[in-house]
Amino acid sequence: MSNKKFAAFIVTFQRPDILMDTIQKILDQTRPPDKLLVVDNNDNDETKNKLAQLYPNVAHLKVGHNSGFAGGGKAGLEALAKEGYEWILWADDNDPPYTEDTLEKLLHLAESYGANCGQVGVVGHKINKRTGLVIRTTNDELEKGGEYLEVDTIGGGMIKVIKGESVLKGIVPEAKLFFGFEDLDHDLSQKRAGYKILVHTGLFMELRKKWNKVNFKKTSTVRKKDESVLWRDYYSIRNSLFVMVKNRYYLAFFSILFVSFAKSLLSYKYGFRYGTLVTKNTCKAIRDYGLNRWYKR
């Protein structure tokens, strides 16, 4: 087997202890990567120094600023693809593989499918082009679909193994998105280029059982979130509008606008302060998208 077969990188920001645990779990895989790279979004050397002490054989790439999962993903993919690696794991520092043979099974699927396989992963879904929403993969599809299932996107943290060839063709995350839907944007770019995106049905179903989501049903109720995580909604709205227009899903663009405003109004049932915070986030996201502003909040 070529020593340029499989590499992995982990994007990290200010979580050195969690990172070290994820590194160990990746190295403990039945098929560990031939090279492991840490893409460091910190502006200090804490992670670099800890890495040198505990895992001196793990490569380190310092970005020098917080480029988000999008910017870190772009840097890691480009660095490893240029070195000639055929398959590249794009990982977050708090999302290690779920089983000890996850990477072995994914690589086997990727290599056995054929030349137009762009990426493989554990959890993925189709996208409704009219609403922009995920169409949840059913249990029947996983149990009766064979070893794999074709999807539109594999979410971040769901063990995405990407074909290096596609990276060399310029299919990389939009760094300006920073955080939120950078994975969907990347995946739809792969599909437009003719690549197939596959999930391993066995691993997917195993994880669904582990998380007790076999009988999961999504509700339309607007739930109150902790105020400390409301900032995520800004990126979700702004970036999803960008992705929908880029892919000419214009009905989905207007659907997201309508739903975002509707959720803002409904959020006032949890109090004026909470509703105001949600509404401000929504308005700023739509404003910044319209003005082509790509702030990191």
UniProtKB/TrEMBL annotation:
User: Which superkingdom?
Assistant: Bacteria
Q: Name one GO molecular function term.
A: glycosyltransferase activity
List keywords of the entry alphabetically.
Answer: Glycosyltransferase, Membrane, Transferase, Transmembrane, Transmembrane helix
- Locate the transmembrane regions by residue number: 249-266
Annotated ranges, domain Glycosyltransferase 2-like: 9-131
Database matches in InterPro entries: Glyco_trans_2-like (IPR001173), Nucleotide-diphossugar_trans (IPR029044)
Which PANTHER family does this chain map to? Answer: GALACTOFURANOSYLTRANSFERASE GLFT2, RHAMNOSYLTRANSFERASE WBBL
The UniProt similarity line reads: Belongs to the glycosyltransferase 2 family.
Stated name of the protein: Glycosyltransferase family 2 protein
Q: Which organism is it from?
A: Niastella caeni
